[in-house]
Write a structure and sequence with these properties.
single chain; alpha/beta; 7-stranded parallel beta sheet; 9 strands; globular
Length: 245
């Protein structure tokens, strides 16, 4: 149970059709503090709880994001989770092992989903968060987006898109803190999660370090519950440790 949010709150989850996003939505729906969960995805979702409202949103269409934000404005949701992301898509899009694999088309696709879409969600959702009381906007980032932690190279577009996302979050947090004194804008690193995104790369991951989506989402929600305004602009991993930029 998230104890730092007022009873009757509404939570919004973008990317609810993915493994982590669905886990977020279901866990929040089971939490008595939340009376409603708005699950945003590209297609209608069949969710287990009546508290979950499915909304069709194309995160690469700003008008689609703006439209759902307008419907959510009267609810003043104190929690917005962005659980969207792309790493690979069939044979045409794979993480680049060398600069020789870089293509403009693939870089544009990865940055559009991992950086630009969350930035547009920030643009339209941050203004509708409540001015008083705790509020959090959190986006899934990744440890490989840390510039200082990059010691092995590779995965050019994914690394760079997540590093750019981290900067978007940090910059938005500064502007947001000027008027939303109790709010926080953060990134979350989920660890390696057993989802379609990580499936081709799980062979090198020790069993104890491969999390279920429910476990990862549970741990990240515990982090969200603990953080406050002093933490805004940072990226935290699933255990609450700060991920270096």
């Amino acid at each position: 149970m998230l104890k730092s949010f007022p009873s009757g709150s509404t939570a919004v989850v973008f990317g609810a059709g993915g493994g982590i996003g669905r886990a977020f939505a279901e866990l929040l729906a089971a939490d008595p503090a939340f009376s409603a969960v708005v699950a945003c995805s590209r297609r209608p979702l069949d969710m287990s709880s009546a508290k979950i409202r499915s909304e069709i949103v194309d995160i690469l269409d700003e008008n689609s994001i703006a439209s759902v934000a307008a419907t959510l404005k009267p609810l003043a949701p104190p929690l917005v989770l962005i659980a969207t992301g792309i790493l690979h898509e069939g044979a045409s899009l794979q993480p680049e092992k060398t600069w020789r694999h870089l293509t403009l088309e693939n870089m544009q696709q990865v940055f559009a989903v991992n950086t630009m879409a969350p930035a547009l969600i920030i643009k339209h959702l941050l203004p509708i968060l409540p001015r008083e009381g705790k509020s959090v906007l959190a986006a899934l980032s990744a440890r490989v987006g840390s510039i200082s932690d990059n010691g092995i190279g590779g995965w050019y577009s994914y690394r760079a898109s997540k590093a750019a996302l981290n900067m978007m979050l940090r910059t938005a947090s500064i502007e947001h803190s000027r008027r939303w004194k109790e709010g926080a804008v953060i990134g979350l690193h989920p660890g390696t999660v057993d989802t379609d995104l990580s499936e081709p790369f799980q062979g090198a991951v020790p069993g104890k370090q491969l999390f279920t989506a429910k476990h990862s989402a549970t741990e990240m929600l515990a982090v969200v519950d603990r953080i406050g305004p002093a933490d805004t602009g940072q990226v935290f991993d699933y255990s609450g440790k700060v991920v270096a930029f």
